Amino acid sequence: MVFTTFVNFIRTRGPDEFWRKRKIFKLSAHFLGRRRNCYSLAIRNVHRALQYATKGRRLKKRDMSDLWSARVAAGCEQHGISFYTFMESLQRCNILLNKKVLSELATWEPRTFEAIARIAREKAEIEGLPDVKNQHVPSGVITRGMLNMDSPNTEGCLLANGQGLCIQARGKAASPESSGILVALSEQASKLEPNSKPPTIILDYSDMTCFIQKHGVTTAVYRKKK
Questions:
Q1: What Pfam families does the database record attribute to this sequence (predicted)?
Q2: Fewer CB in 10 Å around end: N or C, the chain?
Q3: Nearest of 169, 178, 170 to residue 203 by alpha carbon
Q4: Rounded to whole angstroms, how far apart are CA atoms 44 and 64?
């Protein structure tokens, strides 16, 4: 008796080898040169890429955590409280926000973050936690408060750096081209009393009043209507 179909019971490597190589070539499709279509080169580079991807997943988590901590720490410094005291105060207030959410609030919702920082400061003062400082703006730091237009009769404001270049202008402020003249006025006024706080220059017009005030290396100009 002859079994003519015996060859069907023998496992061939043809289809299996094709699909195994196809899986590697799909992973190496974005490589350059022979690394994308030469199997002996592609499989080595794919294995190396997968090893780096495994390491990169851990490094990405660490880098994002450091980024969130830096953003929250910068917001805490702006509101006069250290990062660790801020986080400890939130825990004691039962405000369960992680660093990712706090960093998003510090970046895109500064007023919400300011309210949370105020709660943390009050809790830290009650509990006697350290590193609660008086609010101050470091020299040369531009804050959102310098562009505050919430005060009544304020029509516009302008910020200029020490070189006389306009950084930002809102509303009906002075012309950005005149920022150099305004910075020169504030610097000359500061030379009158070098050891005291820079004075506020008031330019009185018939229908408006301009206030020029120097904050470190930054000069702010406010325009108010009468």
A1: LAMTOR5, Ribosomal_L20
A2: N
A3: 178
A4: 30
How distant, in Å, are the alpha carbons of 47, 95, 224 from that of 144?
49, 25, 19
Burial (0-12, 13-18, 19+ Cβ within 10 Å), 173 = buried
Q: How many CA atoms lie within 13 A of 74 on its CB side?
A: 14
| pLDDT tens digit sequence for 19-70 | 889 999 999 999 999 999 999 999 999 999 999 999 999 999 999 999 999 9
Domain 144-224: homologous superfamily in CATH: Dynein light chain 2a, cytoplasmic (3.30.450.30)
- Which segments of the chain belong to CATH 1.10.1900.20? 14-135
Report the 10 Å Cβ neighbour count for 133.
13
Q: Out of 1.10.1900.20, 3.40.190.10, 3.40.50.720, 1.10.760.10, select the CATH number for domain 14-135.
A: 1.10.1900.20
Judge contact between 157 and 173, C-beta under 8 A.
yes
Question: Mind giving me the DSSP string for 19-52?
Answer: HHHHHHHHHTTT--GGGTT-HHHHHHHHHHHHHH
Structure tokens at 165: 């270049």
**3-state DSSP assignment of residue 157:** strand
Distances (CA, A) of 101 to 60, 123, 129: 17, 20, 23
Name the CA dihedral angle for 102, 108, 109, 113, rounded to a multiple of 10 degrees: 30
Terminus-to-terminus CA distance in the chain, angstroms? 116
Q: pTM of whole model > 0.85?
A: no
CB 208 within 8 A of CB 156: no
